[in-house]
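A note from the maintainers: we've had questions about how concatenated examples are separated. There is no special marker in the raw files; a new sequence line simply starts the next protein. For clarity in this README we add a label.
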Amino acid sequence: MRTRPRRAVVTAVALFAAVGTLPSAAAQDRHAQHHPSHGGLSATIRYTEYGIPHILAKNYADLGFGTGWAQAADQVCALADGFVTVRGERSRYFGADAASDSALSSATKNLAGDLYFRGVREAGTVERLMAEPAPRGPSREVKDLMRGFAAGYNTWLEKNRITDPACKDADWVRPVTVQDVAARNFALAVLGGQGRAVDGITAAQPPVSTTPTAGAPDARDTARAARELFAADTADMGSNAVAFSGATTANGRGLLLGNPHYPWQGGRRFWQSQQTIPGELNIAGGSLLGSATISIGHNAQVAWSHTVATGVPLNLHQLTLDPSDPTAYLVDGRPERMTRREVTVAVRGGAPVTRTQWWTRYGPVVTSLGAALPLPWTTTTAYALNDPNATNLRGSDTALGFSRARGTSDVLDAVRRTQGLPWVNTIAADARGHTLFTQSQVLPRITDELAQRCSTPLGRVTYPASGVAVLDGSRGDCALGSDPDAVQPGIFGPAKMPVLKDAPYAENSNDSAWLANAERPLTGYERVFGTLGTQRTLRTRGALQDVSAMAARGRLTVRDLQAQQFADRVPAGDLVAADAATACAALPGGTATGSDGKAVDVREACGVLAAWDHSVNTGSRGALLFDRLWRRLPVAQLWKVPFSAADPVNTPNTLNTASPAFATALADTVAELRAAGIALDSRLGEHQFVVRNGKRIPVPGGTESLGVWNKVEPVWDPAGGGYTEVTTGSSYIQAVGWDGGRCPVARTLLTYSQSSNPDSPHFSDQTRLFSEKRWVTSRFCEKDILTSPALRIVRVRS
């Protein structure tokens, strides 16, 4: 356990005491005081601008208490909704056939999600993981944080009236237990494994007839579906992050820019805070809702961010079934019976529903990984899903390790010691000028050798195409095995993880680890981690162009990070807009034929494309026209110059304007905008916005395929004015550096603001900042917190 120097400890303790006794008459006049209850757990919460809480506590249980209380104050409805999910009670309150909570699983309907989470609860899965001694299970500090979080949330419910219309007077808003808090962490851990397959797990039933059934999935179709399924992860969640070393900065210290792309609504929102235990912990950043630890953040000496990784956190085992019993499978010629789990779910307005789930030594039997990837259970074959994160409740300890870190070496030590990250990379920088990239994930121990030796015919296609291994479950010698440095069996140990230390820059935009630094490519990792030598996304290519140029220019400061975040350059525009304008101008008669066979006058579009500034600023004219055109251009016919692994940042390139698809896409785009009454040269912000309390807030940024760093994914509603809401995109952004003083130089922004309650003053205040490309200056040191003109102090007790 690391502590600060003695002088700093004494100062912090004195400040804690000073804050604990603040209520001189002058202080009471300046700051609103609130005492919700007395006795038991307690914390002091100092709110500064934009409703950011700075939580001061004497120990981890108290810190969890203050965090749970403050999160409930801002996000009670989103939190309560998630707790209904992990208790398996959505059907009870919202109906079995209603769309489920997409924040915590892939279940399409409430009934499927309830059957899964109720099954997890009745099997005692989370309790067993909580009982495991550290490091396999949570540490005492994390258990105290969870216990305190539950108590803080419950105390807020007891002492406050809910005003958010999303759950005001709702009977499903109830007190929670430590098990509920831990179950939410479990749901996040398995999001890429069992959570991805909830429908397939809960629908899996043995064939009703003993007549042999055909139905082995087509290998190529399955491989394509698996590739698309895992590539689609960044549609819902993604990220950019870059760390610059002291060799590139103005003062020899590190810099970190984190730009995670997460949902703007629901239970995977970030929530911003600072957590302080004097002499023990002092960390600021964003937490995923329901988490008692900081997920992405900085302390006085190190900053880190995460990006969704390409590692595939699951694999399949193809079972050879006993010819006389489809609920028994053979391993080395000996039958093993599947385990039945009878799960009953309460349903609103109807009788309870009971379903059977089937489990094997490898995990649950699954009949699909999404609608496009069926895995039929026949009389001869079934598929079991292995998810190593179903025994991983260590993510909070990893986060706590980061929070205590004094440098990037401590960050790396934390991931190696705790091994708790299920589906993200880590990028970090520190005050001494060091950088780090690591893809330290909890992944099934699928070596390329094992896949070569043990893949079924289906797996021989899916593994190279997507990283999804399908192993022969009938062979004992196809077990995953163990690495000596792994904290649990069947996963890779830290020695196998891709790591890049002290590069001038380390960057990731959701492609594999290969080009974390284009001049120092990472190689030698197994296919399950991601690809080598393959085409990068436009977002990766644009990011690498930008950050390598920044590193080469040098003398970087936090201001340069801020400029990169909001440059809003469109790499796709730089590649093709000029060629598109030229090809447009060359169309005979200035017309093009749309997909409906009608001729469209496109002459105006040619000039708009030529004049566009290749950005997605809210004032950019032509950005919307290009965006709508780009979405229509067929990828298979897009480029003249193909990808080359020798030049991965700059290829493929050169728009194939000779393809008839170009003119058709242009005609359809022009017709679409005119039909909606949208001028071709309109400013982007006039038609890309969110509405908060009846007011439009223009939104900068662009969609994934454009390659924009500042990614936003809005919903196209031409009748409503264009892009009228953002579903996912830039979320908790931080630009962090150091200047040699005791306080880090940090600028932050929570794009969708702290609260989802429209009655809160912090419902859209940071969203307006995002619209205007403005930042929040971090108040990390005590002197900055206590001198905030917006300071409001709340003391909370259980």
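[label: protein 2]
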Amino acid sequence: MKQEPVGLFEKYFIIWFRTLTEKIWTGDKKLRNTSIAIFAFGVLNVFLLTGSVKDFFKLKEAAVYDIPSTLYGMNDKGEYEPIAEYYKFSRIPVKLEQLKAEQSPLSPDNRHKVIQCFLSTEDNSFYSHNGIDLKGIARAFVVNIMAGRVKEGASTITQQVARLKFLSIERSIARKAREAWLAILLELVYPKDKILEVYLNEIPLGHGTIGVGAASRFYFRKEVQDVTWGEAAILASLTTRPTQFSPIVNPVSSMNKVRIVFRKLVENGRMSVADAEKEYASLEEYYTNLNRSPNDSAFSDRLNRFPYVTEYIRKNLIRSIGSGRLYNGGLKIYSTINIRHQEEAEKALLPALQRQTIESNQRAFRNIDAFDDLYGSGYSLIADLYDLPEFKFRISRTERTFSSAYQEDLRDEFFALNLLTGDDFLGDLIDKNYTSQTTKDHLLPVEGSLIAIRPETGYITALVGGSGFRSDNQQIRPFQAFRQPGSAFKPILYAAAMDYSGQNPDPEKNVTPATLFADSPLQYLMEDGDEWAPENYSSEYSGFILLRKALEQSKNSVAVRVLEQVGLSHLMESLRGLLQLNGRDIPYNFSVSLGSFELTPYELTRAYAALASGGKTVNPISVLYVEDNAGTVIKDFRKDYEDVDRKQIISKEAAFLITSMMRDVVEEGTGRGVLSYGLNRKAYGKTGTTNNFRDAWFVGYTPELVTSVWFGYDVGTISLGRGMTGGKLAAPVWGRFMARALDREPVIDFPWLADVKVTKKTVCRMSGKLPGNQCHDLFEEYFIPQTAPKEICNDHGSSWNVVETKPSVSSTPVARTEKKKTEKVEKLTPSAKPPKRKKSVFSGDEEIDY
């Protein structure tokens, strides 16, 4: 036996229902009461099926649009300027007030032509019904019954707004009922003009456009308030099936549908037959001159001046604010990108990559038939034994041969013949084939990277991620390309070594710009029995050489000996602090000194930015803050940036010394190529070239900007070609960019120079020691006070008669060390005393893997 519910609500409901039933069925008016009850329950059921209490709270969202977000960069005037848009569908909101009345109306209704076209085709009685057009429903019912199919719809503009804003596109009675219910609510809350405005801004009109504003700009390249009658009719013709009736995809179908729109205008008394024919005929020029790809979309029309910047910031913002808000929130995103810097970065790098692709001339693998030729006959047997899938190509050998021959030989000939014949169709096909080809003549593209950062603020002002942003080339290489820095790592190593010596002075092991090292071949026996013999780029050696000169000439053997003398364990903390390798560590072996481990251009640039900031870490930032459509800041990245402490990794004195040494690299060493474009300020930097010329670098800075340039292939084992060094490839690009990007900016000095405490000493150029009586070649060098030399040079013997000149003193702290011009000296007798050699000492690193 089924028990009654025991809950309080259930008991109360049952008692109430019994009482109500008794009242309905008692008395003299049972039939009337029963009818009322049935009607009331029917209305309640309809409401429960079609409506909800939540619907009343949704209505305020009807007038809220999904608006694209805009990315801003800084121009030369210090003003923010749009550089990109983020959206999945293009929408340009239009106020009904913008669609002003016609000055010379063709009908009694003087509303704007766009409004008249949409009212005539979609809902001519819009301003007279209350959301549901009962006459229209009856008429559509009869028409559809007679036609035997759905030929005419009965949805009013208000119902369409309800569907567009709140419902799906499924065809069902329940959905139509909810559509009608929501339409009634919309009519109660909003005036007619507002509902029409929402409709004109929400209706999809094809090719990724939402609303008449975006559609007008896409189809006609003009604002919606400026369209003609014919263009307004085209927009109104796209409401039902935008793809089928698109003038770009199906011009004939479009013209037929536009004729129907004009017929509706005539039927509804908005236009005379003569005027309709005249306006329709005026469209002939538009359709005749229409020459656009059917695949064209509003997405390709979006503002996107710097694609690599746009994509990098997009990925970061999706993680922090979400994709929905980014694409539809109408956000204003204020970035650190300097428009002039970005333009000059692309002008400097992209043409250089294209030229280098041709010069390096590394062809993609093309002998794809080799396997089929050599092993094709035996493959069927192997496949039967091991159950392998069928071996086949997507296209035949004949097709591949023709495609290759056409691309390399025949296409140019066809193009020349077409110029003579003047056939537009064939010319368009050839042009499309040229532009759609990703790599010309099967050449592997040389890729590259350029990233620029303000050393004091961390602002990323320019970013180029490769040879061109395409569907097959969207890798943002400054952040995603892990490559060996080669000799570009030496300044970081030397700065850390000099900083350690300043904190732990030891006359036998101090590393200073004037420390003498042996530039000679090295050979190490590794634990596995192999030998490691690091060599200089030129395979030539200079004997004993000062560290400043060794950096200028990029001596590999000296870099290894610096690490050997100080000890890698003593430098690890500083190196980790400068590089900030989250989740990765620096390998514990001496090949580190030659940049043998992988870094991204961003990581290497950030490390150089620390040197340019006086040894203090830099926290790069690309977006400052984000505002919503009302101007309220919803995300302030500046606060996140300020909350991260900038740590003093190495001393300002060590940063000063390595900066002065890198000045010599630019003036006299491997980085002279940066001066090719007339940079009007002092620059400091270092080249880098990895084994077999796989990577070419230049990383450097001025007080205003830190920039890195990298050349290489995505496949890290491919060479750029013999002699393709950082000095030849990357340095000129760096110099061109810096010269033109900073051309309009005032020359400044490093703000931290006033706090630097270094001493200047006159030393012997041969030994790096304090000059003795027989020293004939002197220069002035900077030292951290604790590491200044105290030993007098006696490496020359007494066989030189020297007339010394007074050394010159530079007026600027960070300047190229001037070479001394000495008077002519006369050699009297050969020196009997051999040069004193420094012994090579391992400093507690016996367990390091060489």
